[in-house]
Specification:
- This protein is an alpha/beta fold.
- It has one domain: Rossmann fold, CATH 3.40.50.
- Helix 5 crosses helix 6 and helix 11 runs antiparallel to helix 12.
């Protein structure tokens, strides 16, 4: 029995069932036994692979996107590059290298990373040593001033509540103990107050699950307040849906395969699909300007990933060329990451549309 499982059993036995949000937060961020605290989850020997680890093209294009934002902002004398959940630091390293080629920009960048994992901070130190990054445990300690904020596969790991329609009432899905002491899903009694739900989901069918991430909405609200008052833009890239929809999307991944969500807590990555529509509503309420979401494939093609792949192939051998083509397919194809992953930008009022979001046909928009 794992230490985290023992901890959860004791908590539930003493305090009663916990919400799905509490379960996710404990499994991922427990200060001693949490999934992200204890390991590097990325790569072939890890549990999953993110876009920056697939190809340098991804980070380079994000860097050029950021450089265009900086120019649109009027090329301020100082700008914070902020990445939320930067993994091994690969995206930031590739992006900052690309940004360094823009005259006058490199010396104006201050790098800030929001990361709680001591293991991943070591990886980021190696990747970004020349940039002398500053680390933060949360967005609350980020410095003021103009900023370019990147969140790639960050929001999917934020805790969600799962609300269950029960006739005319709503209940909340919980994690509790079976008679034999195993973790199982349960439900609360009917909620005394009707929950605040994403638009269009108040009349779902009996038994349907509606997911709400108060944590994600809180982060977007804080970031948008900052952008509105101090300038800049945020780019959110994640898998999820462009329109709010009911459904149970909570999943666990271990060793690049799906895993039982309640088995061996703390040993697998827990995520849920991001509700981009709800994030957009939250940002607009805070007076931010929202672009997208678009599919990742449409966004990367608009930024010129096919041209970048061609440039890399011109200097590559056969084996490298095959790898470039494979990465391009994986990042942009509709049956790979190209459609499941979405991209949304939030900017301060008054900025022109950021790169990738201008002149796209409506058919490129994600739904």
């Amino acid at each position: 029995m794992s230490d985290l499982l023992d901890y959860l059993r004791r908590c539930i036995a003493h305090e009663g069932p916990i919400s799905v949000a509490q379960y996710m937060e404990t499994c991922l961020a427990h200060p001693e036994h949490g999934y992200y605290i204890t390991r590097d989850p990325l790569g072939a020997i890890g549990d999953f692979t993110t876009a920056p680890e697939i190809s340098q093209m991804f980070g380079e294009l994000i860097g050029l996107w950021a450089a265009q934002v900086w120019q649109t902002m009027g090329a301020p004398g100082s700008v914070s590059w902020i990445e939320l959940g930067p993994g091994r630091g690969t995206l930031s390293a590739d992006a900052l290298r690309a940004m360094s080629g823009v005259p006058g920009l490199k010396q104006r960048i201050e790098v800030h990373l929001v990361e709680t994992s001591p293991v991943l901070r070591q990886c980021q130190t190696a990747a970004l040593q020349s940039w002398a990054p500053t680390w933060h445990d949360s967005i609350d300690t980020l410095p003021g001033g103009p900023a370019i904020i990147i969140a790639n596969e960050f929001f999917d790991a934020l805790p969600i509540r799962q609300l269950v329609r029960a006739g005319a009432e709503w209940r909340e899905r919980t994690v509790e103990l079976s008679d034999s002491g195993e973790l199982v899903f349960g439900q609360t009694p009917a909620l005394g107050i009707a929950p605040v739900l994403p638009a269009g989901l108040s009349n779902v069918k009996d038994g349907d699950i509606v997911e709400v991430s108060l944590a994600a909405m809180g982060v977007v609200r804080t970031l948008t307040d900052r952008l509105r008052d101090q300038g800049g833009a945020a780019l959110i890239i994640d898998y999820g849906h462009g329109a709010s929809a009911p459904g149970d999307t909570l999943q666990a991944v271990k060793g690049h395969a799906f895993h039982d969500v309640l088995q061996d807590p703390g040993s697998a990555d827990l995520t849920a699909h991001v509700d981009f529509a709800q994030l957009a509503v939250t940002a607009r309420k805070a007076a931010g300007v929202v672009y997208g979401p678009l599919t990742q494939g449409a966004f990367l093609r608009a930024l010129g990933i096919e041209l970048r792949a061609e440039q890399l192939r011109a200097k590559a051998n056969l084996e490298q060329s095959i790898a470039i083509d494979s990465a391009l397919e994986r990042l942009t194809a509709g049956d790979a990451m190209g459609r499941l992953f979405k991209v949304m930008a939030i900017t301060a009022p008054g900025l022109s549309a950021p790169a990738g979001f201008e002149n796209l046909h409506s058919s490129d928009d994600s739904t």
